[in-house]
């Protein structure tokens, strides 16, 4: 009897004070990010390195555009993943199938040669990652009751899992790339995703029933329309590819255009749907300035995978005690700071509780600070190859990290708090659309980067980001009123 009494009085198990199933979602996202960032750490140099160096020899500007377009497509694909979850399968099943698609994409990059492997692999990874990202985030939201002050702290902890994968992925794939070749690095990314998939299969049954609920299932007529639309889209893409319209140098512009149109369509849907009430409609309106600020933030931040990769390859002194570290290792600096500081931010938001700054203020600070980070490139401008000190990049990425923690996990959280119940997962996809737009813009902007014009490049973009942050700060009172009590 005493054992029974002990079990009844014992506090429920938690994951660092959070719901225990956060550990499962933490794990699958960590391994998916291991594979994603591990592959992305070597993707750009694979595209523009010469064939003698194991690359494809693509023009550097075009290669940066491809990376930006691919990154935008990843987040654009969250629309497909979110729509499938809300209308067909539910978020839990979409997450499972999407993880399988991601693994197949990495296998294609590892085994298929040249541009064939790049095309097949990147499309599969983009579609699969879109499904994983939107639905993993949505599932985290189902673990918390409305008004639970642990929510922002829980998303910060979830973000820690993302960055554990982002830390280790580029280190290991970069090491394999520099010693054995690019395809071994891509193969390791596939192994990482396979581990995450196995871990999720073993724990997925413990998620709440709401994880498998389809909020707004398709009617039979809608199902037929959806099938016809999918076939039509596939035919259009095939025709564009065969006629040469989908050239590599046009991809980033296409992704930017599609993303912008999709965002407008999504906001229109949410604001006009009969399933959205007046209070929910105000909250959707409040999300518009946050969406714009988020896109501006990611247009700067995601240049870690375009401009900063080129900068690390050509301008950065990567020598440590006579050894030159791989280019991709620079991309593991930011996750180190995330791992260190995410716990700090989690503790701060938990300690402050209802007294913490509102979401618009966090967003404004994040955009402004990332702009300051770009201005910190200016003291190093104008040097030759290998002239930029590694410590300088470390400092800039520290500033980037502070900005990221003020905006990214908070953006994931607020998208679930402002979401109309009928469109919960699709509201998360709308946040990822802002990431898609910013990421694609980062690829387009990279084409303007030139080592001879660094002062203008970093100065103008940094100043624009700071200006957007100040503008959002000015309209914060209006945004808070539209949020109808959501902080």
Automatic annotation (TrEMBL):
<dbReference type="InterPro" id="IPR018456">
    <property type="entry name" value="PTR2_symporter_CS"/>
</dbReference>
<feature type="transmembrane region" description="Helical">
    <location>
        <begin position="284"/>
        <end position="301"/>
    </location>
</feature>
<keyword id="KW-1133">Transmembrane helix</keyword>
<dbReference type="InterPro" id="IPR036259">
    <property type="entry name" value="MFS_trans_sf"/>
</dbReference>
<feature type="transmembrane region" description="Helical">
    <location>
        <begin position="388"/>
        <end position="407"/>
    </location>
</feature>
<feature type="transmembrane region" description="Helical">
    <location>
        <begin position="30"/>
        <end position="49"/>
    </location>
</feature>
<feature type="transmembrane region" description="Helical">
    <location>
        <begin position="157"/>
        <end position="176"/>
    </location>
</feature>
<keyword id="KW-0472">Membrane</keyword>
<feature type="transmembrane region" description="Helical">
    <location>
        <begin position="122"/>
        <end position="145"/>
    </location>
</feature>
<dbReference type="Pfam" id="PF00854">
    <property type="entry name" value="PTR2"/>
</dbReference>
<protein>
    <submittedName>
        <fullName>Peptide MFS transporter</fullName>
    </submittedName>
</protein>
<feature type="transmembrane region" description="Helical">
    <location>
        <begin position="95"/>
        <end position="116"/>
    </location>
</feature>
<dbReference type="InterPro" id="IPR050171">
    <property type="entry name" value="MFS_Transporters"/>
</dbReference>
<keyword id="KW-1003">Cell membrane</keyword>
<keyword id="KW-0812">Transmembrane</keyword>
<feature type="transmembrane region" description="Helical">
    <location>
        <begin position="224"/>
        <end position="245"/>
    </location>
</feature>
<keyword id="KW-0813">Transport</keyword>
<dbReference type="InterPro" id="IPR020846">
    <property type="entry name" value="MFS_dom"/>
</dbReference>
<feature type="transmembrane region" description="Helical">
    <location>
        <begin position="329"/>
        <end position="349"/>
    </location>
</feature>
<dbReference type="InterPro" id="IPR000109">
    <property type="entry name" value="POT_fam"/>
</dbReference>
<feature type="transmembrane region" description="Helical">
    <location>
        <begin position="61"/>
        <end position="83"/>
    </location>
</feature>
<feature type="transmembrane region" description="Helical">
    <location>
        <begin position="361"/>
        <end position="382"/>
    </location>
</feature>
<feature type="transmembrane region" description="Helical">
    <location>
        <begin position="182"/>
        <end position="203"/>
    </location>
</feature>
<feature type="transmembrane region" description="Helical">
    <location>
        <begin position="251"/>
        <end position="272"/>
    </location>
</feature>
<feature type="domain" description="Major facilitator superfamily (MFS) profile">
    <location>
        <begin position="1"/>
        <end position="480"/>
    </location>
</feature>
<dbReference type="InterPro" id="IPR005279">
    <property type="entry name" value="Dipep/tripep_permease"/>
</dbReference>
<feature type="transmembrane region" description="Helical">
    <location>
        <begin position="455"/>
        <end position="479"/>
    </location>
</feature>
<feature type="transmembrane region" description="Helical">
    <location>
        <begin position="428"/>
        <end position="449"/>
    </location>
</feature>
<comment type="similarity">
    <text>Belongs to the major facilitator superfamily. Proton-dependent oligopeptide transporter (POT/PTR) (TC 2.A.17) family.</text>
</comment>
